[in-house]
Amino acid sequence: MTTQERTHAVVLGAGMGGLLAARVLAGFYDRVTVIERDHLDETVAHRRGIPQGRHVHALLPRGGEIVEELFPGLLGELVADGGTVLTDYSRLHFSPGGHRLSPEMDLPPMHQPSRPFLETHVRNRLRRLSTVDLRDGCDVSGLTTTAAGDRVTGVRLQRRAPGSPAETLSADLVVDALGRGARTPAWLADLGYRRPAEVEVPVQLRYTSRLVRLRPGAVRETLVVVGATPERPNGMALFAYEDDTWLFTVAGYAGDHPSPQYDAMVDFAAQCAPPHLIEALRTAEPLSDVATFAFPASRWRRYDKLRRFPDGLLVFGDAICSFNPIYGQGMSVAALEALALRDCLRQGDRHLARRFFRAAAKPIGVAWKLSVGSDLTLPQVEAPRPLPVRLVNRYVAKVLTAAEEDPVVAAQFMRVSAFLDPPSALMRPSILARVTGTARSLPRPAAAPGPALARTGSFQPR
Fold first, then answer.
1. Which of 180, 272, 279, 287 has its CA 20 to 30 A from that of 131?
2. How far apart are CA 428 and CA 438, in angstroms?
3. What is the spatial distance between Cα 293 and Cα 396, in angstroms, rounded to a whole number?
4. Are 312 and 174 in contact (CB under 8 A)?
């Protein structure tokens, strides 16, 4: 094990990925600086650099466990400050692919913070660390490197205030957490390296959201998710959020897109949502403008396949892989990447980028199989469907059918979707028996709690 000087690490981007990376780095570097273009308020607020922040987000149970490990007591703070947590899964309405899953599940609680609410709490926790500096209002104009271009030595910054001079910030490690628009591929090309290969699955998704307040007692549910089906390539979600607010979202694939007017959104949701929800939404009090977001394709930049990569640089979160957001995987995958980064740093700095990218590819690969496999059940998604994908999706359809009545199968499906168990858990003999109908006489468990927003499937790019 070898360790280079660990004096200063710089993280580009203060989204959830960047914040989680910064927390891990603070355990290994004397100083950590987080660079963000937006102004970072200490109060809960949407910001321009996170356009998806106005739409539904999920902190899946495994992601919540990791956040709590990195920031002990944070989940309790969220609840104390008004955040919602799903513990009674009879209050979950989850219908992936046209199958309403049994709510009688024994699973860990799932916290339901809005993206700004969660991000603000995490950011304020980081501010308490004396070794972490959050610098907002800064644009990153490029990297600095050694003369040979084999090591990144820092970043060039430009404050957004008029008349501010350009600035160079030296660093032993730079982490690019700038999201889908991250510029590491272009920076690599400028330095004479290969860009990472990119795998894309076009989904042409558009979703529209509005924050509302429902009449007291209008709905019993705490979380509602209705997924798309081959016959109906659209869906909806309704999340109970902090301060007695609800986020209502409708989404559609490949041209079946919702209109950005609230009444039209409710009519759109009426295609798939239970009537009592539609009635409650029609009389809801609007608390925000209608927000719309377009997501053309899931994209995985295969940094783990590169043979050469400069020292002193890493890429993190959505800058590596951005998934169809309808499955709510992004923050939890970033949390899993944070654990991978911590493990790699504990092993020293030799070949750090290679080891990290390969370690991060494992949770990314699981999430990719889950979300892309689900998307490939929709004929509107134009992408290859290899035989393994078709076989797995055929089995998953049987799993979901069984999960409508069998809470054991439903709980196992949810555990896989929530990254608590590997996808292979759906093939355990006990689950296989229930799915195939040979274990219908097995006892049902007592009702309890569980989570997730994904259908499983299998698609592994070469």
1. 180
2. 14
3. 29
4. yes
Q: What is the pLDDT of residue 160?
A: 87
Task: DSSP for 223-235, please give it.
Answer: EEEE---SSS-EE
How wide is the angle at C-alpha 230 spanned by C-alphas 228 and 235, nearest 5°? 15
What is the enclosing helix (H) or strand (E) of 61?
Answer: helix 61-70
Helix orientation angle between 16-25 and 115-127, rounded to the nearest 10 degrees: 20
Contact 55, 177 (CB under 8 A): no
Burial class of residue 423, CB neighbours in 10 A (0-12, 13-18, 19+): middle
Sole residue written with tokens 């925000």: 288
Burial environment of residue 278 by CB neighbours within 10 A (0 to 12, 13 to 18, 19 or more):
middle
Q: What are phi and psi of 92, to 5 degrees?
A: -105, 130
Task: Express each pLDDT in 160-214 by its tens digit.
Answer: 888 888 999 999 999 999 998 899 999 999 999 999 999 999 999 999 999 999 9
Total number of residues shown for the chain: 462
8 A C-beta contact, residue 186 and residue 194:
no
Whether 448 contacts 107, CB under 8 Å: yes
Lookup result for tokens 């570097």:
29
The first and second tokens of residue 367, run together, are: 């999430």
Q: What is the pLDDT of residues 21-72, one digit of tens each?
A: 999 999 999 999 999 999 988 888 778 777 677 888 889 999 999 999 999 9
pLDDT digits (tens, 9 = 90+) for 119-168: 999 999 999 999 999 999 999 999 999 999 999 999 999 998 888 889 99
* SS3 category, 429: helix
Q: Buried b / exposed e across 30-54, counting CB within 10 Å, b at 16+?
A: ebbbbbbbbebeeebebbebbebbb
Interstrand relation of 132-135 and 92-95 (parallel, antiparallel or unpaired): unpaired
